[in-house]
């Protein structure tokens, strides 16, 4: 059984073990695979593991030995799952491995947008405090989260964990989900402080909007000039989901006009971003390099799930299949 990892570095840059997967076959690991080398490296593989290396129709149809694609992530838009199904190739993903990490990171972004800790750390180290006539100072208004309305779009495990953490700070939580009847499976959430609302009502009521939904035809570019126009002035927008949920030019314009107070983003449309991305040059953006998921604990959990997925496939008992 030949197993090829096309882009393993982001998941495991060397601080974790591939042993649980190497036990299952002859394992070849590539840190990164450029598009022009995908076919050569994947040739003869029974199992391909990919994080962000795209596997489209032409590639899948050119690999007659391929039986299984394991995605080293939860989102699976990097693989043409329809073509895989047509060619009897099983595709699985790794759900829920980063719930705690991403929810924690979301709150960190909200706190940074509210308190500007990084900016004040910079100011102190550049002697602004030393030169101040007062015992304290601040360069930005400091915001308390208690009684603020956090609006969560997408109420899966990460959205629910984020709601739980937000309630600790005394925030009111409103939610939009495409399945409003969805049961809350997090027992630590105070359900009397959760309200499911329409998307339009969410936009008008939110002090902070946090995106936790998948990127689909329905959600693509949902944060745009029209939706932003419905929002309160000084709204904070947080995105730890997918960059394609936001029209970046529209968000940049809203940030420049101060309709949006701060945008705190862990994801962008193009990653890494080009120098032309307008969001990179604004003072009221906080941008991190798509690493909300990347705690060592989450990455270990991811590899554990992937190995279990492959074991299940080899035993004929499929789990986490997406096609």
TrEMBL record:
Query: What CDD domains does the annotation carry?
Result: 2-Hacid_dh_4 (cd12162)
Per its record, what are the GO molecular function terms?
NAD binding; oxidoreductase activity, acting on the CH-OH group of donors, NAD or NADP as acceptor
Keywords from the named record: NAD, Oxidoreductase
D-isomer specific 2-hydroxyacid dehydrogenase NAD-binding domain residues: 107-292
Q: Which PROSITE patterns match?
A: D_2_HYDROXYACID_DH_1, D_2_HYDROXYACID_DH_2, D_2_HYDROXYACID_DH_3
What Gene3D superfamilies does the entry give?
NAD(P)-binding Rossmann-like Domain (3.40.50.720)
Indicate yes or no for the key word Ribosomal protein.
no
Q: Which domain of life is it from?
A: Bacteria
Pfam families the record matches: 2-Hacid_dh, 2-Hacid_dh_C
Residues in D-isomer specific 2-hydroxyacid dehydrogenase catalytic domain copies:
22-323
Q: Which InterPro entries match?
A: D-iso_2-hydroxyacid_DH_PdxB, D-isomer_2_OHA_DH_cat_dom, D-isomer_DH_CS, D-isomer_DH_CS1, D-isomer_DH_NAD-bd, NAD(P)-bd_dom_sf
Looking up SUPFAM superfamilies in the UniProt record yields: Formate/glycerate dehydrogenase catalytic domain-like, NAD(P)-binding Rossmann-fold domains
Report the family membership.
Belongs to the D-isomer specific 2-hydroxyacid dehydrogenase family.
In Swiss-Prot or TrEMBL terms, this protein is called: Glycerate dehydrogenase
């Amino acid at each position: 059984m030949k197993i090829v990892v096309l882009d393993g570095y982001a998941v495991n840059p060397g601080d974790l073990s591939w042993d649980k997967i190497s036990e299952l076959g002859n394992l070849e690991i590539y840190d990164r695979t450029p598009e022009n080398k995908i076919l050569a490296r994947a040739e003869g593989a029974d199992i391909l593991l990919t994080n962000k290396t795209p596997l489209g129709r032409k590639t899948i149809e050119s690999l007659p030995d391929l039986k299984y694609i394991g995605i080293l992530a939860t989102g699976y838009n990097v693989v043409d799952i329809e073509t895989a199904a047509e060619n009897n190739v099983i595709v699985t993903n790794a759900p829920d491995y980063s719930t705690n990490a991403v929810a924690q990171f979301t709150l960190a972004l909200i706190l940074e947008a509210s308190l500007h800790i990084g900016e004040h750390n910079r100011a102190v180290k550049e002697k602004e405090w030393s030169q101040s006539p007062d015992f304290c100072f601040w360069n930005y208004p400091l915001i308390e989260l208690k009684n603020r309305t956090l609006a969560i779009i997408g109420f899966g495990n990460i959205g629910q964990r984020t709601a739980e953490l937000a309630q600790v700070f005394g925030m009111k939580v409103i939610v939009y989900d495409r399945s409003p009847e969805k049961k809350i499976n997090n027992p630590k959430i105070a359900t009397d402080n959760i309200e499911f609302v329409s998307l339009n009502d969410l936009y008008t009521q939110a002090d902070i909007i946090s995106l936790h939904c998948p990127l689909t035809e329905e959600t693509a570019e949902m944060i745009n000039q029209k939706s932003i126009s419905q929002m309160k002035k000084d709204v904070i927008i947080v995105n730890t989901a997918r960059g394609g949920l936001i029209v970046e030019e529209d968000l940049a314009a809203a940030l420049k006009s101060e309709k949006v107070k701060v945008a705190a983003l862990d994801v962008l449309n193009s990653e890494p971003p080009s120098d032309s991305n307008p969001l990179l040059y604004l003072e009221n953006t906080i941008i991190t390099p798509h690493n909300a998921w990347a705690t060592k604990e989450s990455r270990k959990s991811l590899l554990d799930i992937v190995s279990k997925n492959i074991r299940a496939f080899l035993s004929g008992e499929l789990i986490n299949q997406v096609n």
